[in-house]
Amino acid sequence: MKHIFIACSALFILSCNQASKPAEKQEMPVVKETPVGAVSDKLPDPVCRMPYDTSYKEWIVYQKDTLHFCSVTCKEVFAKAPEKYMAKLKK
Questions:
Q1: Angle at CA of residue 35, ends 60 and 86, nearest 5°
Q2: Based on CB atoms within 10 Å of each CB, which residue in 19, 31, 42, 44 is the most buried?
Q3: Does the pLDDT value for residue 42 go beyond 70?
Q4: How far is CA 1 from CA 6, 8, 11, 13, 31, in A?
């Protein structure tokens, strides 16, 4: 039993002592940081000023302008005082 313990200990020490090779450095590909669904010719969210994104599901037509909102909350805030937010948007 003593010999088995010594043999297992020796194998354990040898296996832990082996130096592993460092991983080769690979350069990460360069990715442009542009929003996936952003569209520059559309008006931004008039309440929080986030740029228009194709994933926006909330919208209102106000004086022939279709305004898209990032959330239901922004849409409701705009609906309470649309003139205020349109004035800020036109500046």
A1: 30
A2: 44
A3: yes
A4: 9, 11, 16, 18, 60
